[in-house]
Every structure is written in structure tokens, then in C-alpha cells.
């Protein structure tokens, strides 16, 4: 096996490992919050707000912001942070933990739901979900980046 193929295989396995762990955590959060992993069907039938998806997207946004800042710092310090670890944690874990497709579908369900709790204020529920995911996600990603950056500055000053 040549060097490029070996490297690609190593990176692919890292993403798969991180992705498996992130997807597992996403399911566990859904079970802990709602009692099972069938969140989309619950929203359509029972009218529950999709809190599990919101939680994983917010936590994942913070985590990815933190990881990006941390790896940028490592690159400044020694010039070679591990690409494999970054892909495992950033792309694999946080990519599988967060979910854009479920978020978009859940907003669609909130808008078109025949469930009485949403039917009367469908646009308001959808707008709240959009704001919480998009604005909240960007804000906590920036916060994660800031937290990691401040830790780096404090560590550098104390050395």
C-alpha cells in the first residue's frame, strides 16, 4: 500500500471512529430527553418541541468552536497539530453529533403540523426553532472559540 493511500485510510478511520461516537451520543441525548430516539415522529404526532436536536446542535457548535481554536493554537505553538485527531474530533464526532437535516425537517414539521399546540402558532414555533439553532449555534461556536483562546493566552502568560 502506498503512502497516500495509507494516509487516506488512517484519516478515514479517524472520521469513522469520531462519527460513531458522536452519533451514539446524539441518540443517547434523544433517549434521555424524550424517552426514545424517534424525535421526528413524536413532533409530528404528539406535538413535542424538538429539544434533543437543539441541545446537540448547541453543544456541538460550542465544541467545534473550541476545537478549531485549540488546533489553531497548537499550530502556532509547534506548527503541526494532528490532522488525524482534528478530523476524528471535529469532522467525525461533532459532525455526527450535530444535525442540520433533522433541524430543517423539524422546522418544516413545526410549520405544517396539524397538532393543535403548533397549528395556532406554527410560524412562531418555527421562528423560535430557527433562531435557537442558527443564532444560538453561531453564538456558542464563537463562545467556544473564545474560551479556548483565553485559556491559551492565560497559559502563555503564566509560562
Automatic annotation (TrEMBL):
Classification via InterPro entries: FluC (IPR003691)
* Topology within the bilayer: Multi-pass membrane protein
Q: Does the keyword Oxidoreductase belong to this entry? A: no
Give binding positions for Na(+).
Answer: 95, 98
The reply on keyword Transmembrane helix is yes
Q: Which UniProt keywords apply?
A: Cell inner membrane, Cell membrane, Ion channel, Ion transport, Membrane, Metal-binding, Sodium, Transmembrane, Transmembrane helix, Transport
Pfam families for this protein: CRCB
Where, per UniProt, does this protein localize?
A: Cell membrane
Q: Output a single Gene Ontology CC term carried by this record.
A: plasma membrane
GO terms, biological process: cellular detoxification of fluoride
**Gene Ontology MF: a single term:** metal ion binding
Q: What does the UniProt record note about how this protein's activity is regulated? A: Na(+) is not transported, but it plays an essential structural role and its presence is essential for fluoride channel function.
Annotated TM spans: 12-35, 47-72, 84-105, 125-148
- According to the lineage, what is the superkingdom? Bacteria
Catalytic reaction equation(s)? fluoride(in) = fluoride(out)
Q: Which HAMAP family has this protein been placed in?
A: FluC
Q: Which family does it belong to?
A: Belongs to the fluoride channel Fluc/FEX (TC 1.A.43) family.
Question: What is the role of this chain?
Answer: Fluoride-specific ion channel. Important for reducing fluoride concentration in the cell, thus reducing its toxicity.
Instruction: Indicate what this protein is called per its UniProt record.
Output: Fluoride-specific ion channel FluC
From what organism does this protein derive?
Answer: Aliidiomarina sanyensis
